[in-house]
Amino acid sequence: MPEDSESAPAAPELPGVDWAAPPAEMVRNAHVAQVMWGAAVLDNLLVTLLTHSLPNLSRRLRERLFEGYGPLGNFAPRLDMAFAMGIIGEKLREDMVHIKDLRNVMAHSPSRADLNDPAVRSILSRLRGYTPEKDPLRFFFDRVQDCLRGLWELIDKLANEKGIKIEPPAWPPGR
């Protein structure tokens, strides 16, 4: 069957669906996905840092603390614990708290907020180095990458002190 525009199936006719208008929605969805992904990568590295910092952490205790409804079962208490233990510094913690807040606002926004939304920009502006003229997605990625570098440096230092090997993350690019 030839693959030309005349033989291609037409988009389904659904009431209330405007197939010609998805670009704005795609941008919003892309921003949400990127923020969710960036926060998840940071959260995973934070778990790596915390778990390697706890000397008596068995597999069972790790599950009890870090999974489900455990006391370290999500990003916020992990950040608090890492800071309280002196594992991460104040600047890294502040940026990661704001990234966590961005993730929460965007994940729970009924209007599917993007990085240009005023409520989101308000949180974005709390990140170090923010200026309104910067592209919000590029700025977000730069902040995430700086946080990832900071966490990885701490993980690498910890691994060297303990004489162990911890695999580097797949991101940031160029590692």
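(the above was protein one; protein two follows)
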Amino acid sequence: MRRTVRIAAGVAAVAAVTVFAISCGSSTSPSLPIYTATLVATSEVPPTTATGTGTATFVDNGTSFDYKLVVNGLTTISASHIHGPAAVGANANVIVNLFIPNGPPYGQVDGVIATGTITNANNQSFTVDALRAMFIAGNAYVNVHTNPGFPGGAIRGQIVRAN
């Protein structure tokens, strides 16, 4: 009888530890802040007739931002940047380069055109903290330039918190 009680107690202890371990997984831990920009022609200032679209995603790691830039339906992409500080409907200077091609603009693009990490060391224009403050305030945007076509910007999107 004692042996049965000990086995049952052992099984119960293992089950309790397993449930506790599962509950401590990533589903309950706070997630990193994520910011996104949905890039469309009507958000450019002034609006364009470009037919492409895109998405820029920024993950705030605390001391850096990881980013991914996806573009669909554009040709002759010549650059992509973060601009700021600027509210919706206003233009501003480039503060971070996201994509500069290694040659002349190329044909149609559908997919990821750039990934990278923004740090204080690789960005002389702005600190990560200043960039974060602009993201939080909604005062930064991403645009994609084409040349020929829309050298001032083909598609654009304001950077906003996604989670």
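Reviewer note on protein two: The first strand starts at residue 34 and ends at 39.
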